[in-house]
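To the wet lab folks,

You asked to see what we're planning to order before we commit. Fair enough. Below is the target structure as tokens, and below that is the sequence we designed to fit it. If anything looks off to you, flag it before the synthesis order goes out.
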């Protein structure tokens, strides 16, 4: 069983049998954590809506905390006293940690900044996309949109070819893309698949998730899309 708490924007706390995984925690009060379990804090890239320096406060509050950061984050953003708690990952790298009962992390290239994280822990596969998405925009030149689409397809193909189908996937659903907002999740589900998907990066437009689930393209998988309605909402994934 994994408990998933939606924090804000692209921020989630996942609690497994042996640990706690905190992803892209930003602009929110730091969640209460179990002091008996390890904490691994993930930051997918340097954008200010994903990297919040408040995460360093956890090191003073929690006895067992470790940080995994995208390597686009400048090393001078890490306070000197915490450097021994930090690992940086670039696209394509693989990291194994003893924390949380042992975990393996594979980083995939984002179609914007930084990386997406695929985490194998407690017999589960967890995927946090960061800003990996099919970032096509109305009004952008066709070559731009085609290049972004091809880059997104390439990363999804890599995930599929490596044999991964996440039990839990946190994926971008951004209404700023207007009628193109559904492209990323839809293609992920048709190419890679997931046991349950948590939309994110929807800028507090919670109704966007319901509208997405009502689209005809989601008929085959809409029951696997978690409907987030508020900050702090908790889901239990068997």
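Sequence we intend to order:
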């Amino acid at each position: 069983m994994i408990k998933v708490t939606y924090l804000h924007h692209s921020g989630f706390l996942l609690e497994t049998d042996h640990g706690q995984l905190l992803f892209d925690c930003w602009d929110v009060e730091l969640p209460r954590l179990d002091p008996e379990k390890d904490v691994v804090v993930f930051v997918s890239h340097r954008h200010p809506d994903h990297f919040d320096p408040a995460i360093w406060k956890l090191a003073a509050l929690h006895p067992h905390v470790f940080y995994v950061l995208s390597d686009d984050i400048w090393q001078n953003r890490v306070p000197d006293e915490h450097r021994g708690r930090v690992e940086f990952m670039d696209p394509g790298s693989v990291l194994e940690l003893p924390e949380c009962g042992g975990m393996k992390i594979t980083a995939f290239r984002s179609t914007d900044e930084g990386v997406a994280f695929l985490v194998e822990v407690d017999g589960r596969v967890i995927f946090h996309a960061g800003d990996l998405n099919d970032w096509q925009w109305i009004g952008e030149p066709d070559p731009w949109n085609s290049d972004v689409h091809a880059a997104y397809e390439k990363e999804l193909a890599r995930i599929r070819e490596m044999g991964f189908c996440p039990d839990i996937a946190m994926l971008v659903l951004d209404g700023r893309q207007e009628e193109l907002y559904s492209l990323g999740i839809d293609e992920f589900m048709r190419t890679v698949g997931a046991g349950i998907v948590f939309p994110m990066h929807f800028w507090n437009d919670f109704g966007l998730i319901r509208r997405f689930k009502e689209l005809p393209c989601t008929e085959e998988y809409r029951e696997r899309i978690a409907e987030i309605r508020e900050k702090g909402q908790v889901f239990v994934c068997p």
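Structural context that might help your review: The first helix runs from residue 58 to 61. The chain has a mean pLDDT of 96.

Thanks,
Computational group
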